[in-house]
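Sample intake sheet
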Amino acid sequence: MKLYRDEKGQTLILTALCMTILLGFLALALDMGFLFDSRRHVQTAADAAAIAGATELSYHGSTNVVSVARTAAGVNGIANTASQVSVNLSPTDGYHTGSNYVEVIITQPNPTFFMGVFGLHTINVAARAVAGVPASTACIYILDTNASDTDVIYTKKTITASNCGIQVNSPNPAAVCLHGSGTINGDFLHIVGGLDTGGGCKSSKTTPLQSGVAPVSDPFNNLEGPIPATACTTGSGGNTTSLTTITSTSQLPTPKANADGILSDQVYCFSGTNVSLDGGSTTLALAPGVYVFEHGVSIGNVTVNGGTLDIAGGVYSQKNEALTVTAPTSGIYDGIAIMQPSINTTTGSTPPSLQVQFGSGTQNLNGIIYAPTSLVTLQDSGGKNWTAAGIIAYQLTSNDNITITNNYNDTNPSTTPLRKIALVE
C-alpha cells in the first residue's frame, strides 16, 4: 500500500496567513496616515497659538498671553485647550529662550481605527512651536522705493550700526554710495537694488552685503503724529503757545491729555515760527509728551525725558549746545525721539529735509529718528558727538560719522516698536 502526500489546500492557508499580515500592515498604514494628518493639524494650531501669544506679549505684556494662545489653539481645532495646550513664557529649552519668546506645546489624544485590535485605542499626537521677536534686526530703514533715485544712502564717513543692520528699499542698482572714506560697519547691509561703485563710490569692505532682497514696510506705518489742526487748541485752557523763545518750563503750554491717558502721548503745541527752545546755561528739562512744532524749531541746551520732538511743519535746527532725548517706551510714539512726519512738506526742498546735526553741538538720542518722507542729513564733519538708537528715513546723507549705539531693539526688547513677530521653532 502506498502513502500519498496530499498538498491540496496549502495555498489557501498561506494566502490566509499572508492576507492577515498584509491587512495588519494596511491597518498600520491607514492609522499612521490618520495620525500624520492629525499631527499636521496640531502643528498648525501650535504655530497659530505661539504667534498669537508672542503678539500679545510684545504689545500688551504677559498678563493674557496664556489665554490668548489657548484661544488661538481652540480656533484651530483643539477642543480641550485647558488640558491639551501648555503655554510657557520664557522657554528654557530649544534654540530661542528668554523673555521675548512664547512656547506652545499641544498634546492631543487621537483614536485609532485598526490598531485597537492590538490594544492601542488612542495615541497622543504632540506638536511644539516657539514664536517671538528675533534678536537681530535692522536699526536703519531707508524707505525710498523710487527706482530712478540713486544714492539714497550717501556717506563720506562711517555709519556704525552696532548689533543690527541696514535695510534699503530702493530698487536702483546704485542705491548706496560709500564715497571716499565712507564705509558701513554693521551686521548686514540689505539692498533691494545694489551698491553704487562709480563716480567716487566704492564697494563695502566691512559689512556683509546682500542685494536683491525684498523691501520691508515702514515699521510705524506712516505715523503722522498729532495733527495740529485737531491736536492743538488755543485760547483759555488751550495747549498751544505763540511764544517763540522758551527758556523755562513755566513758559510751556498746558498739555492736552490723550484719550489713552499715557503721559508720553500728551501734546504740547508751539504755533510760532522758528521757536527757540533753549535752557541756556541751565538745561531745559522737558517732561514726557509730544512737543509739536507747527512752523519749525531751533534747539539749544535741552533734555527730553520720555518724550518726542515732532517737527510737524517748518525746519528743525540745533544750536551749538547739547540735546539729549530719551524716547517714550509706551504709547503711540513708543521709541520715537525726533519725528518729521509726512504732513511736513514746508522745509523748502524735495524731498523735505531733516538736518539733525549742524555746528558743534552734541546730540544723544536714546530713541529713533522717524522721518518717513524726508532726507535725513548729518551735515557737519565737525560735530562733537552724534548718536541715536535707530533711523527710519526716506533717504540718508552723512558728512560725518553716524553711530547707532544702544540699538533700540536690544535696550528695549519688550517695548521696541521695531519688533517683528516671527515663528522661530
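Comment: The chain has a mean pLDDT of 84. Helices lie at 10-60, 65-75, 81-84, 228-231, 408-411.
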